[in-house]
């Protein structure tokens, strides 16, 4: 498949967008790179639409001229989602920033794609509601929809999939559609909304999202607990989940990770496998949860069970958790991060984490382990020098082995980072003959192959010639 | 579109299936009718495969000869889902009844499509786990996937959509695919699993399902409370949801419904708008919930707050709730039921229910109202004589007005019953220009149009000539 003349598209868009269409190398490069080691693949131009009609206009021009479109949120994805593999026009959605409605009575809100999760929560201040999904980065809601983001709160509230009630989408032909309604449940036809959630901009551009909101828990308590052995920490999580404790968050940090966090965030956690818990609910519910979890932790050899009930102590703890990325990079000045994640059935979690840790040691790599372990989801964050081919080869091997173990025990090749172009082969392996159905979806919704080409399925396959 | 020769398909299947292929009028009619007023539309034959390979065999023959296939679970759907509108072969999945695995440690199970929810729960006895989705009827798990069933527990546990981790599906060409994994969350490609959930057998035949299981709550309490006015009952639910109370179930019955239930199930509830609550959780959590909800009910004029903490009292109450269908039919001997449902944003619930009730009175119809009101979902169950054209015209008007009001306030034309062929026009109205995307999905996955034709989108459109 050959794409059309991108310069013709740029010329057609210039009169409408003026200085909201950028050809500067710096802007293009910034939009062709995510936060990870993936090399820059800059688009030919970056356009900053202010309103949905402008998104439609861009898409119509690109459809007309058969030019690739790469939707862009905040660029905080992990698997090369924003790389302009075949050039084209990047549509930066950050200026679609209207909070169209907050409906406190219905516990929902409609926001444009460029609103970030922190902006949304700031707007919710004083309503008694919050939007709990928290992937760490202050990602845009549109981007979080597109990558099916989750993070620390997913064990309690689910992922983006569970939060999205309806979507406004510009399709690859420039038309605007709405999927879903504000009803909490529906049996009306195919679940188009959830087909777009996690579609990584390959089927259309999300321009607005209606989301569930949640009552801020009456009471929140956080605690840390360290364990002599990683397996004991994981066992504590497994038993907590199995006991049906509706825990708010439970995060695992291995000893390497704790050391990095202590150093970067000036904490004094024991350098040992550590769990960070958060409990949400009524006072009675939280008390019951705490007692049960503390018993489970004690039975598994947990020590240093420490409370952080004051909001400022909790904030400090979670800020440290969220700064893990920077803490890891600081372990090795000048390095880049290669974060990878898998998600496994929880009974398999300890074995998977342990094996990954041994692989890292054996391959002489730096890769702290952390995880949203209540879901069976964990990360290796390789701290790498991407220019060292031998190191990258070893990283690739450890990553592949981690994913293959996850698939072998019934897990997935990515719990929350997505496929981008970094994990296409693993998706192929995971899906087996269902991979063809992924291609069926892509071809049916984007027959011209202009929406973020080369991602998820890798289609159009013959793009190398474009 | 003309379909092929169904008798040729029958001849090709006979040698393999013997008396598991039925041509008897009684069997065919039973499979061409759901529990509602929809007229019989019998398939040409009913086949009872025992294993997945036999499902593939049937589908291959039908694909080869271009013969319609109608998947069948227990026939308890509501919108004509199983009607053989264009004839063809009905695939009764009831003999796919293996419970392939119950994995207590992972809180999941893999069952074949024909296992019913009660069978599954019986198999879970003693594990401390349960499968909470409860649409009333003892539906098959495959059917519940296909209709995206929900019911009384959805306010707490979500619908089938939230329970399904992965699916085994026979596609319209007879090939077998698996979607999803046992991981609790995944960002691996398009959400094929949830595209099949709710697809009503129009994209393939679900043969096995991996489901989430849930810990049986440590403590369960149920209560009833009646209110002078319907709006007060609804207001109590709205405020309960808005307060973030993680209530287990909350069901509304209007006065007509209470009267029918009292008569049929020999209860002595006050004949007034009534809520039935169920609280799940640790003892402390349940106590907190109860106090809060009781305060809310009191403030809204609730009276006769009555507890049912003993399991036998709870069972009696919920049995009565589940027998509503039969209680309603008993209001008018010889009648049939026409159940319809909508789901609206919760702030709109009182107005929608009130308006529907007034319409029913005005049109001189019998239609008790009940609902899974924590989700904003409610039902009118018209008790009808389908042979009376004038009555059916009035029913149609009231139904249409109820749905149009729901759509106008951001709701959906069906919360849990699905589209079948009964609500295609309403789906068209709800989806607007996104209706074309529903057709895109159907055509991409079933280009020959043999899977349960005439449902959801109504495709193939020119089937009248088949």
TrEMBL record, chains A, B:
The keyword Flavoprotein applies. Coiled coil: none annotated. It is an enzyme of class 1 (oxidoreductase). Keywords: FAD, Flavoprotein, Oxidoreductase, Transit peptide. Its EC number is 1.1.2.4. Its cofactor is FAD. Residues 39-216 form the FAD-binding PCMH-type domain. The keyword Transit peptide applies. SUPFAM superfamilies: FAD-binding/transporter-associated domain-like, FAD-linked oxidases, C-terminal domain. Belongs to the FAD-binding oxidoreductase/transferase type 4 family. This is D-lactate dehydrogenase (cytochrome). The lineage of its organism: Bacteria, Pseudomonadati, Pseudomonadota, Betaproteobacteria, Burkholderiales.
């Amino acid at each position: 498949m050959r794409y059309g003349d991108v310069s013709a598209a740029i010329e057609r868009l210039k009169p409408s967008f003026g200085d909201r269409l950028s050809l500067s190398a710096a802007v293009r490069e910034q939009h062709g790179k995510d936060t990870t080691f993936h090399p820059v693949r800059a688009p030919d131009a970056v356009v900053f639409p202010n309103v949905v009609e402008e998104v439609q206009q861009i898409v119509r021009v690109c459809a007309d001229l058969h030019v690739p479109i790469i939707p862009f949120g905040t660029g905080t994805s992990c698997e090369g989602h924003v790389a302009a593999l075949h050039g084209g026009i990047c549509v930066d959605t950050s200026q679609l920033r209207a909070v169209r409605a907050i409906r406190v009575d219905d516990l929902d809100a409609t926001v444009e794609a460029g609103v970030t999760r922190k902006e949304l929560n700031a707007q919710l201040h004083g309503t008694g509601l919050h939007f709990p999904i928290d992937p760490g980065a202050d990602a845009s809601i549109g981007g979080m929809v597109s990558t099916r983001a989750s993070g620390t709160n997913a064990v309690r509230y689910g992922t983006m999939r569970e939060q999205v009630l309806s979507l406004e989408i510009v399709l690859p032909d420039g038309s605007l559609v709405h999927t879903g309604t504000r009803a909490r449940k529906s049996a009306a036809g195919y679940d188009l909304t959830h087909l777009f959630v996690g579609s990584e901009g390959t089927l259309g551009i999300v321009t607005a999202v209606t989301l569930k909101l949640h009552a801020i828990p009456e009471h929140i308590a956080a605690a840390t607990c360290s364990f002599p052995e990683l397996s004991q920490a994981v066992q504590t999580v497994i038993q907590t989940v199995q006991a049906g404790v509706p825990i708010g968050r439970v995060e695992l940090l291995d000893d390497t990770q704790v050391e990095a966090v202590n150093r970067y965030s000036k904490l004094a956690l024991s350098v040992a496998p550590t769990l960070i818990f958060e409990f949400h609910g009524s006072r009675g519910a939280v008390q019951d949860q705490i007692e049960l979890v503390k018993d489970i932790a004690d039975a598994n050899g947990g020590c240093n069970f420490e409370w952080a009930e004051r909001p400022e102590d909790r904030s400090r703890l979670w800020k440290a958790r969220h700064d893990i990325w920077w803490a890891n990079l600081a372990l090795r000045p000048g390095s880049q991060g290669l974060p990878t994640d898998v998600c496994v059935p929880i009974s398999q979690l300890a074995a998977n984490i342990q094996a990954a840790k041994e692989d890292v040691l054996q391959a002489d790599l730096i890769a702290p382990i952390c995880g949203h372990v209540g879901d069976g989801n964990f990360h290796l964050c390789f701290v790498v020098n991407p220019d060292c081919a031998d190191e990258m080869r070893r990283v690739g091997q450890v990553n592949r082995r981690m994913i293959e173990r996850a698939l072998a025990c019934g897990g997935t090749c990515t719990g929350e980072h997505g496929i981008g172009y970094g994990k296409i082969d693993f998706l192929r392996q995971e899906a087996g003959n269902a991979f063809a159905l992924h291609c069926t979806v892509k071809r049916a919704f984007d027959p011209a192959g202009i929406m973020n080409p080369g991602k998820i399925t890798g289609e159009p396959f013959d793009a190398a010639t474009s």
